[in-house]
Design brief:
Layout lengths: L2 H11 L11 E5 L2 E4 L4 E4 L2 H4 L8 H13 L10 H12 L6 E4 L2 H15 L4 E5 L8 H5 L4 H4 L9 E4 L4 H7 L4 E6 L2 E2 L5 E2 L2 H14 L2 E5 L13 H5 L5 E4 L10 E5 L20 H14 L4 H18 L6 E3 L2 E5 L3 H12 L1 E2 L1 E4 L2 E4 L7 H14 L1
Parallel strand pairs: 3-15, 5-6, 5-7, 7-10, 10-11
Antiparallel strand pairs: 1-2, 2-3, 4-12, 8-9, 11-12, 13-14, 14-17, 16-17
Helix pairs in contact: 3-11, 4-11, 8-9, 12-14, 13-14
The structure holds pyridoxal-5'-phosphate.
The site of pyridoxal-5'-phosphate has 14 residues, from α5.
Length: 382
């Protein structure tokens, strides 16, 4: 089927919620994608921080194939080791409490929102300006973007927005009426903007003072993306609850809401559930991703490669280079046009989260040669 025919089918049968680039990817390996004509593209987007260990990683493929051949789904009505062991692995490597699995980032955040409300019934959720927490009604209510929210009003009540860069405003918004403060350590969808350390500290202190939960959304910045397993571990501000998804499954849908020990029993039997969540297949995939990301030296290498990439972008004279590890962005006058040219002229996959920025989220397994090649291609565009 030609690309034109595929586009026509998409227009006819798929709800038009996505603006797609005119390419069909049919195969991937490591940091590379191939289109239907055999053209190779260097992937510096990784499915928006999903293909954490690259495409078709042999151990990941083998883990999924083996699990699919044994048992793919049994239901949360029964015990299954891959999901339970994954919960152990996530909890032990982070907050030490308990885990609820979902199928996406939005679902992980829905769990965190429900958990916060269960913790403090009727309590407010404090979120930051420019946050992105997802598109389901609860997560959307935590995403203060008029364009995304207004068509779907009324939203879930009880969400309060404070400026991103103002610790005092955040402190002032939190009180005995607050269920949780919810923050992305690095705001991804709105342009790769690290939340200032002082704001994270203010959130931690205000939550401690008033018995509210600090929820950190690690959906885009977690799973090794910034050079530590979780971004908060690099910052040193520990949440009560964190959410993960995207890179956790390395390309299959899984999300997780992880608590500290104090909040592991807030949600009670019957409070929440999801048919597919934490199923055997996706859990097997997530173990394979963790095996790679937790290997000795891997995260230090992510940080080092990130520095090489930052240095290279700065040498190209690009303004506004920012981010941490392999979660980076720079400014350009026309983000979407730059990304389109990168794809068509240089076969480099990038993304423009805002009209004037371009972000880079390569697989964490990207090689230094591939980083040099991406920089060469960006340089050619300039
Ligand atoms: N939270 C953050 C920080 C995200 O970047 C995203 C997706 O981009 C989400 C939540 C929502 O995740 P999903 O699209 O898997 O529902």
């Amino acid at each position: 089927m030609s690309l034109a025919e595929l586009e026509a089918l998409d227009r006819r049968y798929v709800m038009g919620t996505y603006a797609r680039a005119t390419v069909e990817f049919v195969r991937g390996e490591g940091s590379w994608l191939w289109d239907a004509e055999g053209g190779a593209y260097l992937d510096f987007l990784a499915g928006v921080s999903v293909n954490q260990i690259g495409h078709a990683h042999p151990a990941w493929v083998a883990a999924i194939a083996a699990q699919a051949g044994r048992l793919a789904h049994a239901s949360n009505l029964f015990y299954s080791a891959p999901g339970i062991r994954l919960a152990e692995r996530l909890a032990v490597g982070s907050l030490g409490g308990r885990v609820f699995f979902g199928n996406s980032g939005a679902e992980a955040n829905e769990c965190a929102i429900k958990l916060a409300r269960r913790h403090r019934p009727g309590g407010e959720m404090v979120v930051l300006a420019d946050a992105f927490h997802g598109r389901t009604m609860g997560a959307l209510s935590a995403t203060p973007s008029p364009a995304k929210q207004e068509p779907f009003a009324p939203l879930v009540p009880g969400f309060v927005v404070v400026p991103r860069d103002d610790p005092e405003a955040l402190r002032a918004a939190v009180g005995g009426h607050t269920a949780a403060v919810m923050v992305e350590p690095i705001q991804g969808e709105t342009g790769i903007n690290p939340v200032p350390f002082e704001v994270l500290v203010a959130a931690r202190e205000a939550c401690d003072a008033h018995g509210a939960l600090l929820v950190l959304d690690e959906i885009q910045c977690g799973m090794g993306r910034t050079g530590t397993m979780w971004a908060w571990q690099g910052v040193g501000v520990e949440p009560d609850v964190m959410t993960a998804a995207k890179g956790l499954g390395g390309g299959v849908p899984i999300g997780a809401c992880v608590t500290s020990p104090a909040y592991g029993e807030v949600l009670r039997p019957g409070d929440h559930g999801s048919t597919f969540a934490g199923g055997l297949l996706v859990a097997a995939a997530a173990h394979a991703v963790l095996d790679v990301v937790e290997a000795p030296g891997f995260l230090a290498e992510v940080a080092a490669k990130g520095e090489v990439l930052v240095e290279g972008l700065r040498e190209l004279g690009l303004p506004g280079v920012r981010g941490r590890g392999l979660m980076l962005a720079f400014d350009v006058p026309e983000g979407a046009a730059f990304v389109r040219r990168a794809l068509t002229e240089q076969r480099l996959v990038l993304n423009a989260p805002t009209p004037s920025s371009v972000r880079l989220l390569p697989p964490l397994t990207v090689s230094r040669e591939e980083i040099a090649e991406a920089l060469r291609r960006i340089g050619a565009l300039l």
